[in-house]
């Protein structure tokens, strides 16, 4: 147990920032970190070595020296290679371009490592500076310019950072709690700043060389996204052939970094955009359409890379056509919707329309027709107030009811045609009863023009004719009638 406790105490001593940390043998490989992964970034930020050479080893490596010598020689010689020289990836200058792309990524990682070294050293002098100047190169320039100076009014920071940042740095420096650095620590910090600035210059030379050759290697891709972005895409993907085989959704994420917003909203952060964010088309697109434009850019860039990989169009005309197509799409998205046109009325039909008619419709109209009483109630006479159910104009108004002459509210309503037909049918049914009973109103008196008033039996003739079919066509008593023609 004592051995285990001693190992824990040793680990705690290694994690302490106040003590001097001695570099181990395997710590020299920290320069090969990938800044896109969060674990590697955490390891980079935890570096706090006393010796700068144990942290930064890229500039002294043989690979860095060889590539930079070839790049400087190629830049001095100029672009003398013709288009046919890049027809194959076996060309030595093409291999140099691929190596330059990989070296540019390593230089960026090395700059981040040196930036953390400078922050750890200069934090004792000006702890607030790292929150005011975020870019590593700008931070190195400001630290080298300030040094151990306490009064920042004597330091000229013009041209290094924007004017607003200069004002904030000057105000913050007057209230800082930092103390001047020792001479040894200050010299190491200045040396680290010089290395960071030298790496930045080397990175620019590498990118200039790659951009000068991109017009021959990938003319169509360069026509869409530009030479700088095309070089970064090729370097991250591992060559033009690897970029051509990559799907568009992955091309969109090349170079994307997870941004730490420190609690701020992620609504406007474009964390799914990589190197395509630096293209001219993306920068000139409105914010609401940038993600759509990025997807279109990735798709067209993949097509252009496939054309360049097989040397389909060395002139770059295909890339320019694709760029124009992207521009027209973005302009189409920004157009306002078409105005709503007024709908014209239909052409009137000259022919009369077929309307439903008949006995059923007439009965319905008569049943729901407005009565004369309701017509008078809905009508008012000019200059004469109407009577109401509650008086003084309250309640339901009677209109012209009662103003017709007799002073009564009730109006005689005439019998409708429907009611007259119903009454007629009921009268016929009452007279022609089938039960055989005689109505009490029937009489045996009959008026004839010969004898005047005489007695007769109404049932005698009915009994004589009989009933059923005998009283009509097939009667035993009846005969055929003769009709005279006129």
From TrEMBL:
Keywords assigned: mRNA processing, mRNA splicing, Nucleus, Ribonucleoprotein, RNA-binding, Spliceosome
Gene Ontology molecular function: any one: RNA binding
InterPro entries noted in UniProt: Nop_C, Nop_dom, Nop_dom_sf, NOSIC, Prp31, Prp31_C
Residue ranges with Basic and acidic residues bias: 22-31
Listed Pro residues bias regions: 335-349
Biological process terms in GO annotation: spliceosomal tri-snRNP complex assembly
Compositionally biased residues, Acidic residues: 32-42
Subcellular location as annotated: Nucleus
Region (Disordered) location: 14-42, 330-361
Chief place where the protein resides: nucleus
Organism superkingdom: Eukaryota
Domain Nop stretches: 217-335
GO cellular component: precatalytic spliceosome; U4 snRNP; U4/U6 x U5 tri-snRNP complex
Transport as UniProt keyword: no
PANTHER family for this protein: PRE-MRNA SPLICING FACTOR PRP31, U4_U6 SMALL NUCLEAR RIBONUCLEOPROTEIN PRP31
Family of the protein in this entry: Belongs to the PRP31 family.
Protein name stated in the entry: Nop domain-containing protein
Species, as recorded: Papaver somniferum (Opium poppy)
């Amino acid at each position: 147990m004592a051995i285990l406790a001693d190992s824990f105490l040793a680990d705690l001593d290694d994690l302490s920032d106040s003590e001097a940390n001695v570099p181990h043998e395997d710590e020299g490989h920290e320069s090969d970190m990938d800044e896109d992964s969060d674990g590697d970034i955490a390891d980079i930020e935890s570096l706090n070595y006393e010796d700068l050479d144990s942290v930064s080893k890229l500039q002294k490596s043989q690979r860095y020296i060889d590539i930079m010598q070839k790049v400087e020689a190629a830049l001095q010689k100029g672009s003398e290679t013709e288009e046919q020289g890049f027809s194959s990836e076996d060309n030595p200058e093409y291999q140099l371009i691929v190596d330059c792309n990989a070296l540019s990524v390593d230089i960026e990682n090395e700059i981040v490592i040196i930036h953390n070294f400078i922050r750890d050293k200069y934090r004792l002098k000006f702890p607030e500076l790292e929150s005011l100047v975020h870019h590593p190169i700008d931070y190195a320039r400001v630290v080298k310019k300030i040094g151990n100076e306490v009064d920042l009014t004597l330091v000229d920071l013009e041209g290094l950072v924007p004017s607003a940042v200069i004002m904030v740095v000057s105000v913050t420096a007057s209230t800082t709690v930092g103390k001047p650095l020792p001479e040894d620590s200050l010299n190491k910090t200045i040396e680290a700043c010089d290395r960071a600035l030298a790496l930045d210059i080397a990175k620019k030379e590498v990118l200039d060389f790659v951009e000068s050759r991109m017009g021959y290697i990938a003319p169509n891709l360069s026509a869409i996204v530009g030479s700088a972005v095309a070089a970064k895409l090729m370097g991250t993907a591992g060559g033009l052939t690897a970029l051509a085989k990559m799907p568009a959704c992955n091309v969109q994420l090349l170079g994307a970094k997870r941004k730490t917003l420190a609690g701020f909203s992620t609504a406007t952060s474009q964390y799914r955009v990589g190197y395509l964010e630096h293209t001219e088309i993306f920068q000139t697109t409105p914010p609401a359409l940038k993600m759509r434009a990025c997807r279109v850019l990735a798709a067209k860039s993949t097509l252009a890379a496939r054309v360049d990989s097989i040397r389909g169009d060395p002139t770059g005309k295909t890339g320019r056509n694709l760029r124009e197509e992207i521009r027209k799409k973005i302009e189409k998205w920004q157009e306002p919707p078409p105005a709503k046109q007024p709908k014209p009325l239909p052409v009137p039909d000259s022919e009369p329309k077929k309307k439903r008619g008949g006995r059923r419709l007439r009965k319905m109209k008569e049943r729901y027709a407005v009565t004369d009483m309701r017509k008078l109630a809905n009508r008012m006479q000019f200059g004469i107030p109407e009577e109401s159910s509650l008086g003084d104009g309250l309640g339901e108004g009677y209109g012209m009811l009662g103003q017709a002459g007799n002073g009564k509210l009730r109006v005689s309503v005439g019998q409708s045609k429907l009611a007259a037909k119903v009454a007629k049918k009921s009268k016929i049914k009452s007279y022609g009863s089938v039960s055989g009973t005689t109505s009490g109103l029937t009489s045996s008196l009959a008026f004839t023009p010969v004898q005047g008033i005489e007695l007769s039996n109404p049932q005698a003739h009915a009994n004589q004719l009989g009933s059923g079919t005998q009283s009509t066509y097939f009667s035993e008593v009846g005969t055929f009638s003769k009709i005279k023609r006129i």
